[in-house]
Design goal:
Organism: Micromonospora globbae
CATH class of the largest domain: Alpha Beta
Number of strands: 11
Keywords: Signal
Helix content: 40-55%
Oligomer: single chain
Number of helices: 16
CATH architecture of the largest domain: 3-Layer(aba) Sandwich
CATH topology of the largest domain: D-Maltodextrin-Binding Protein, domain 2
Largest sheet: 6 strands, mixed
Pfam families: NMT1
Number of domains: 2
Strand content: 5-15%
Distance between the termini: 20 Å
Protein name: ABC transporter substrate-binding protein
Length: 372
């Protein structure tokens, strides 16, 4: 299995060319040892918790090989670019924001979500501990920091404010402050009164000693899906449909393993992505940090109960959850109107994807030791 940068020529093609592409959806070949080579495009240019759980773990545990797959991981900068890549037939699937998939579909890009990854919305608004801001209403007249005005951070913040009866254009100031220590510095200096980040980024700041109070998200965000597996409509309805089942089955095994044994998952992540160690190398401190970040990311993934025997089928999304995502997409201006669910979601693979020995994965996770 290899990992290489993606040339985004296909993603930068005119939309008409993308949507009229007639490729099979995965550009599959067969390796010398009989494995089917497929390409998966991830929406982050730098590896993190998503890539650890969905790629490094199934790779190192042999879950891809068990499914007869040789997976080539490529990268794209964000959901929109990745969606155009799979629509053009240059990759089998991707992990994209559900709202972004709805927006692409409205523009004529032939893509659909087929299984959830994050079903607890990861974005939240944090304020410094001890701040006078105690409720969303207290944000009126305040300044809120977002990663950038073109980011999901800004979209979430505007929707959060609208849901709480606050006009994001008149009642507050929304300022781009980046993320990490840059965002924290803006908060500490008083440049902003609150910041909007996703759970993993807040966990990263908390590891450096920062403390936050989090405002409750509006009901719209309860159990609302965020990131999900997505493929082209042609692949979902064509000869490579079974490859989607095999890929997602292996990936969900990885997600399940990472949820149960995050320490071992980080071992596999560092083996697959040595750059995760950072400038100081593979130290106990860095491993602890990576485990904390993975746990924060996993807290937004499905399922979230502590008893694995009670976990529901991986990837399931209800109409009610998808309707919330559609309402969010409308409220943020990503789509003009709510789509028909069947136009943006295909849940017909879920039963076959979950046809694996869950107990075997649980046992492997419980028995795996770090460093092995």
């Amino acid at each position: 299995m290899t990992r290489r940068p993606l040339a985004l020529a296909a993603a930068l093609s005119a939309l008409a060319l993308v949507t009229s592409a007639c490729g099979g959806g995965s550009n599959t070949t067969t390796t010398a040892d009989g494995l089917t080579s497929v390409t998966y495009v991830t929406t982050a240019t730098v590896p993190g918790s998503t890539q650890i759980a969905l790629y490094a773990v199934p790779k190192q545990m042999g879950y891809f090989k068990d499914e007869g797959l040789n997976v080539d991981l490529k990268t794209a900068n964000g959901s929109s670019a990745a969606l155009q890549v799979i629509a053009a037939g240059d990759a089998l699937a991707t992990n994209a924001e559900v709202a972004s998939t709805m927006a692409a579909a409205e523009q004529g890009v032939q893509v659909k979500t087929f299984g959830s990854i994050n079903t607890s919305f990861p974005w939240k608004i944090g304020i410094p501990t001890g701040s006078s801001i105690a409720s969303p209403a207290d944000l009126k007249g305040k300044k809120i920091g977002v990663i950038s005005l073109a980011s999901g951070s800004n979209l979430f913040t505007r929707s959060f404010l609208n849901e709480n009866g606050i006009d994001p254009d008149k009642d507050v100031k929304i300022l781009p402050v980046g993320q990490g220590q840059q965002a924290k510095a803006a908060l500490d200096s008083g440049q902003v009164d609150a910041i909007a980040l996703y759970a993993e980024l807040f966990a990263q700041l908390e590891q450096t000693g920062s403390t936050f109070t989090y405002l409750d998200n509006p009901a719209l965000f309860d159990a609302m899906p965020s990131i999900a597996f997505t493929a082209s409509s042609r692949t979902l309805g064509g000869k490579d449909r079974e490859l989607l089942v095999k890929y997602a089955r292996a990936a969900y095994k990885g997600l399940m393993f990472a949820r149960l044994n995050p320490d071992a998952a980080i071992d596999m992540g560092l083996k697959t992505f040595p750059e995760l160690a950072g400038s100081n190398g593979d130290t106990p401190e860095r491993r602890k940090e990576l485990v904390t970040l993975l746990k924060a990311w996993m807290s937004t993934s499905t399922p979230q109960t502590d008893d694995p025997s009670s976990w529901p089928a991986w990837g399931e999304l209800t109409d009610a959850q998808l309707k919330k995502a559609a309402e969010y997409a409308v409220s943020t201006g990503q789509v003009k109107k709510e789509p028909n669910i069947t136009d943006v979601f295909d849940g017909s693979l879920i039963k076959d994807i979950n046809d694996f020995d869950h107990d075997a994965v649980i046992k492997a996770a419980q028995e795996r030791k770090t460093g092995s």
